[in-house]
Design a protein that fits this description.
- By secondary structure, the protein is an alpha+beta fold.
- It has a single domain, classed as 3-Layer(aba) Sandwich (Aminopeptidase), CATH 3.40.630.
- It is built from four helices and five strands, in the order E-H-H-E-E-E-H-E-H.
- It has a five-stranded mixed sheet.
- A hairpin with a 2-residue loop joins strand 2 and strand 3.
- Helix 1 crosses helix 2.
- InterPro entries: Acyl_CoA_acyltransferase, GNAT_dom, YpeA/RimI_acetyltransf.
- Keywords: Acyltransferase, Transferase.
- This is GNAT family N-acetyltransferase.
């Protein structure tokens, strides 16, 4: 198993299909159907933004997943103390490769990156009805510290 930083936005756009379809199925009112061409163009632009890092997970030279992370710096102000974190935007593992430890390997790599940069906090969010994500992050000892709620009018 190999995890490396990637600049291959086309491959990430393909690997994004599983997570995007999952979100579109759970929340069709918010998510567009998966469109490889459009997502590829979006990732092409996102890959140019220096604060984002994409990690590619390969097993036997087969790309099986990725993580999209961001180094965040929250400056101190009169209301809050400053801190730094690694924010996980997305993790996507090919459907046929799930529940085999690949996601955990990506998370371990993210923890290692954070530690190497002197960062002691990894943050993320997931959609409320995504039970698989909830179970996965609970297994990794993530805890709630904020709630994001809405009200439909």
């Amino acid at each position: 198993m190999k995890i490396s930083q990637t600049k291959d936005y086309e491959l990430v756009a393909k690997l994004n299909k599983h997570v995007h379809v999952l979100h579109a199925d759970l929340y069709p009112q918010y998510f567009m159907p998966y469109n490889y061409k459009a997502i590829k163009e979006t990732f092409k632009n996102v890959f140019q933004i220096p604060k984002y890092t994409f990690l590619l997970l390969e097993d036997n030279d087969e790309a099986v997943g990725y993580a999209w992370i961001e180094m965040r710096n929250y400056p101190e102000n009169v209301f809050v103390k400053g801190y730094r974190s690694i924010y996980v935007h997305q993790i996507s593992i090919a459907e046929t490769k799930q529940n085999k430890g690949y996601g955990s390997r990506l998370m371990e790599k993210i923890y290692d990156i954070a530690k190497s940069k002197g960062i002691h906090l990894v943050e993320l969010e997931y959609w409320y009805d995504n039970d698989a994500a909830k179970e996965f992050y609970e297994k990794h000892n993530f805890t709630n510290y904020r709630e994001f709620v809405n009200k439909r009018l």
